[in-house]
């Protein structure tokens, strides 16, 4: 056992003291230990104890059995479940795994070493006693941390067959921490792909989303490709491998996508970058005049439809799916300083004011990922300035921003609710986008009154 000299948050020490006072042991486990040893702020402070959950609960004014079937309860030091709760899990081992996802039964254990043995990687299988600062490290996690290695606890093939998510986690940790994967652990990923297929898509998606927060997600996506995981989770990306584009681009479609994903900042823009050219392979056509060069007509709209299918398969929320699909659909704009203010407003309307920052970020990443050393601000800054200017003149960008509504249209035209009402509002908006000074109630009411026959123009 090694002793360390760093200080832990007071409440972590207090929770441990109470477990000790109740006659139990208390260890910090998992990511917190790894992060403390790396010298980075720890996320969650999870604790393990030999006490049973019902015994643990007695030492705290409030607790919730958040994962009681796995021996986990969440406790608070106050009586209202307020503020930070701590997950405390009884030492456990895991029986056999017959479904490649869940242990058949959870067995409580009396030694911390047995609890550490069920954990996935050596760097995640260390325990720290918060009261004595002693480290329990039976699998040499510290050594691997220094060597920057992801190594499975035990036989990687056996461990990945037990739970198919672990191979995806290996790549996620390697990518986020910028570590290598130990050779045996890496080889085991390709040999156990059949168990990955049994894992729920939500769990795989969540690991993939964590991978995308890495500084360079491309490294992880490439590891997924070479091990075979990409073919399971996002096979559409593989269609772009070796697909040469044209003289605007340094990279093939796949490498361009990876470079754009690395360059984009923020979850939404990153996901949009990952999907923006997803349909290029399916829309590619040889240029008859230049052998080897391709065009990709309608890859934006075909890509939006394909992104929709993929994000449904990956069970993204409707909101996030719609946002990303919209960004993919609209990524092919070509700003020209000759655009009228009306054109700039129509651009804003198409994109949606709430998506402007993401479309700029996507475009910035797309330009960088062409690999030609172009400066994205040359195109983006003038456009952003124009958008600021038109938004200052008027924020009316959608039907609901108009100074009249459907009821007004029905009253003035004496018509019942019908698609016609929407058409009139659309045309009024077109007029207002051209000339924001029209967006006053009286002006619009009089414009509506000119709209008497179905085919009359405003
Ligand atoms: P992060 O900082 O990303 O949350 P973490 O190490 O805390 O990293 P979690 O997914 O929160 O990761 O899991 C907490 C701990 O539980 C891990 O450190 C590991 O010891 C263990 N663990 C999690 N998932 C598995 C798994 N599928 N198989 C074995 N052990 C696991
Ligand atoms: Mg965690």
Considering the chains and any ligands shown, give keywords for the structure.
458 residues; alpha+beta; Beta Polymerase, domain 2; Hydrophobic Seed Protein; two-stranded antiparallel ribbon; 23 helices; binds adenosine-5'-triphosphate; binds magnesium ion
Q: Your description of this structure?
A:
By secondary structure, the chain is an alpha+beta fold. The chain folds into 4 domains: 144 residues, Beta Polymerase, domain 2; 86 residues, Hydrophobic Seed Protein (Orthogonal Bundle), CATH 1.10.110; 155 residues, no CATH class; 51 residues, no CATH class. The protein has 23 helices and 14 strands. Strands 1-10-9-2-3-6-5-4 form an 8-stranded mixed beta sheet. The protein has a two-stranded antiparallel ribbon with strand order 7-8. The chain has a two-stranded parallel ribbon with strand order 11-12. A hairpin with a 7-residue loop joins strand 13 and strand 14. Helix 14 crosses helix 17. It is globular, with a radius of gyration of 29 Å. The structure holds adenosine-5'-triphosphate and magnesium ion. Adenosine-5'-triphosphate binds next to helix 7.
